[in-house]
Design a protein that fits this description.
This protein has about 675 residues and is an alpha/beta fold. The strands form 6 sheets. The chain has a 7-stranded parallel β-sheet with strand order 8-9-7-10-11-6-12, sandwiched between helices.
């Protein structure tokens, strides 16, 4: 007879703890999925977190109910359970929320046939390993001893765009597999998966590579999860959720474009993929390789502090120089009477590239046709009544769509406020740029890659394949075209509005602007010829833009780090976002105030200088819930105290039946909206 502590699969904060059961199966272990009696005569599934030979203290002689059945097919490893315990503390989530990250969705096929993911037909790239450059060899020589000795370590690979980081990833993977280990390869966008799969399949073979990401059907995910857990594959490739792949012998976790915000989950649990990767690798005595041409400020600071090992590759693998950037001051274009989205410089260079048989990428990190709809007579702006933010005009659907909650409305013929017929879309998104590009360059084949054109399964693959095969001359897109894409015939990249993200109310806006410009510029000139980049901006003197166009990461990093140190932003603190939600605005506001009072009572009034708010959130209402927020700068020496205190206050308030609000906490959120 064994006694097990079980976490029950329920969303209630009131039962977010352990329940003890007896079990006749002496083989039951930590991570086992079970069915147990719960709440009277009902039953629930759950997961074992601890196993005892004797009844736990305080339960001796008491009636302990028995496990009904076990489910080995959906059980997880003990390591996964321990990481889930850590996630609960770090990300203020329930036990079961963390556990479910490791659990497959879907179920086995009733017909027994394996469901093959659509991405499995990615075109395999050449399998012959190229000769390494001196920089690649030097970086690999630093990593391999840790792989061979099975010693944990984190490596930050700072390599310029086109320096051969993917080849280095594959060499590390090969070394791990040769020693019997497993590899997780993470990319920030699903759109990058086909190219990465093609390279890894070409090198290691189709049967040794599995994929995990949210675009797979539930059945495909279940079959891939089962194949991975059964040891039928050595490598898993996918977006952030692939970090939870059911490998037990992880030798390496590789995070490409480690700086990307897509690695931060915006759903419960609000985990940071890089942090989870490091936690999993440390338990498995594996290595973590974080690669980027524009490492995050936090990662570079950790490298310079000795927490990570810094590797640098400053030259492209084919020795082609980095692209030449031309900055166009759009204020001068307006003075000359040019109100087009294309400056004279960009228009001329697109014509030149097309004439030479080259391809062009146009980047604008704003989808839709127009960012907002406004009445030119009275100034009315069409806003989402669920979120309070301006709705985006999508011309193809003739709809106004909220890009936060997805609500869609027909655009009225007249202004709801003044009744005039002057209600129009203002500004430009990728849909409008596509229309204008087709008008300006009628002989060119034009395609668009953003969330609107990639919603249908297989559409991303088709758009990228057409561009790769030369069937598309101009590819227009959002940040989906800024990361990792490698097309040798692209000679020109045009950045339509480089400063579009500079005025977002977020302390990382300059960092993200620098990263996006640098990354999208890196798509040019990846073949034998030097590429060109045209950067259109209304803020040509901004330090982030100036550093990006001159490929000067160090200058940007030093400036940004100085500002972060002064303001005590990450990496000099954790920014914790606490949100109170309620269907009644007064209850939400009072809940946020009560949380702050609880914090100050425990931490002291002096801590108030590091707490901002509470105040109505920028997106003040989502669905039926009003939102009030506060931000805490948790300095390193106070982080553990905040971790314990906020977990206690959150549970206390969320289980208080007299309080009509709930608290959500996010550590270093990707958005402060």
């Amino acid at each position: 007879m064994k006694y097990v502590d079980v976490v029950i699969d329920t969303k209630s904060d009131n039962v977010d703890n352990f329940f003890t059961y007896s079990c006749d199966d002496d083989g039951i272990g930590v991570g086992c999925r079970v069915v147990a009696p719960f709440v009277g005569s009902g039953k629930r599934t759950g997961y074992v977190f601890a196993v005892h030979d004797e009844p736990p203290a305080g339960l001796e002689g008491k009636r302990i109910r028995s496990i009904i059945e076990t489910d080995p097919a959906r059980s997880i490893s003990e390591d996964s359970v321990r990481v889930a315990e850590w996630m609960k503390r770090r990300y203020f989530c329930r036990y079961i929320d963390a556990v479910n990250c490791f659990v497959p969705v879907g179920s086995a096929s009733k017909r027994g046939a394996k469901r093959i993911p659509a991405w499995d037909d990615a075109t395999p790239a050449s399998s012959a390993p190229p000769e390494l450059t001196e920089e690649q060899s030097s970086a690999l020589a630093r990593i391999l001893p840790r792989v061979e000795e099975r010693r944990y370590g984190v490596f930050l690979l700072h390599g310029v765009t086109g320096s051969g980081k993917t080849e280095l990833y594959m060499r590390v993977a090969s070394a791990v597999i040769e020693r019997g280990g497993k590899v997780v390869m993470l990319v920030p966008e699903i759109s990058l998966t086909p190219q990465v799969i093609g390279r890894f399949v070409g090198r290691f073979g189709r049967e040794r590579v599995a994929i995990l990401h949210s675009k797979l059907s539930a059945g495909e995910r279940f079959d891939e999860w089962t194949r991975i857990r059964n040891g039928e594959t050595d490598i898993v490739i996918g977006a952030r959720s692939a970090v939870f792949a059911p490998f037990e012998d992880i030798g390496a976790i590789i995070v490409d474009e480690e700086h990307e915000t897509t690695y931060k989950s915006d759903m419960t649990p609000k985990y940071d993929t890089v942090e989870v990767a490091i936690k999993r690798a440390s338990r498995a005595r594996g290595v973590v390789v974080l690669g980027s041409a524009t490492p995050s400020i936090v990662s570079m600071r950790r490298a310079e502090s000795g927490l990570y090992h810094l590797l640098t590759m400053k030259r492209r693998f084919n020795a082609t120089p980095l692209p030449k950037s031309i900055v166009v001051d759009m204020r001068r274009e307006i003075e000359r009477g040019n109100r087009s989205v294309f400056s004279a410089e960009l228009h001329a260079r697109i014509e030149r590239a097309l004439t030479a048989g080259k391809q062009v990428i146009l980047f604008l990190n704003r989808r839709g046709y127009s960012p907002f709809i406004c009445c030119r007579k009275c100034g009315y702006v069409m806003r989402c009544d669920e979120c309070g933010i301006a709705m985006t005009y999508h011309k193809r659907e003739e709809r106004a769509i909220c890009h936060f909650c997805g609500k869609s409305l027909t655009v009225p013929q007249v202004c709801p406020e003044c009744g005039s017929g002057y209600l129009r879309g203002f500004g430009a998104g990728t849909e409008k740029v596509e229309e204008l590009t087709r008008d300006a360059f009628p002989r060119a084949s034009v395609a668009r890659l953003d969330l609107d054109t990639s919603s249908v399964k297989g559409s991303i693959r088709k758009i990228l394949r057409d561009f790769e095969k030369g069937r598309t001359d101009i590819l227009i897109g959002t940040q989906m075209v800024a990361k990792g894409l490698d097309f040798a015939n692209v000679s020109l990249v045009g950045i339509i509005a480089a400063d579009v993200g500079l005025n977002i109310p977020d302390f990382r806006s300059s960092e993200r602007t620098f990263q996006l410009i640098t990354q999208v510029a890196g798509r040019a000139g990846r073949g034998a010829e030097v590429g060109d980049v045209v950067v259109q901006t209304y803020a040509p003197d901004n330090y982030a833009i100036m550093a990006a166009v001159t490929h000067n990461y160090r200058k940007f990093y030093d400036t940004e780090l100085m500002l972060r140190r002064y303001m005590k932003y990450p990496p000099f603190s954790d920014v914790i976002q606490a949100t109170a939600l309620s269907g009644d605005e007064r209850d939400a506001a009072e809940g946020a105030e009560a949380l702050k009072r609880g914090i100050l009572a425990a931490m002291g009034d002096g801590e108030g200088r590091y707490i901002f708010g509470p105040h109505k959130a920028a997106i003040s209402k989502v669905g039926d819930d009003y939102r009030y927020q506060m931000y805490i700068k948790a300095l390193p020496e106070r982080r553990i105290r905040y971790e314990n205190l906020l977990a206690e206050l959150k549970k206390k308030m969320n289980t208080d039946r007299t309080r009509k609000c709930r608290i959500i906490i996010d550590v270093n959120p990707f958005s402060l909206m």
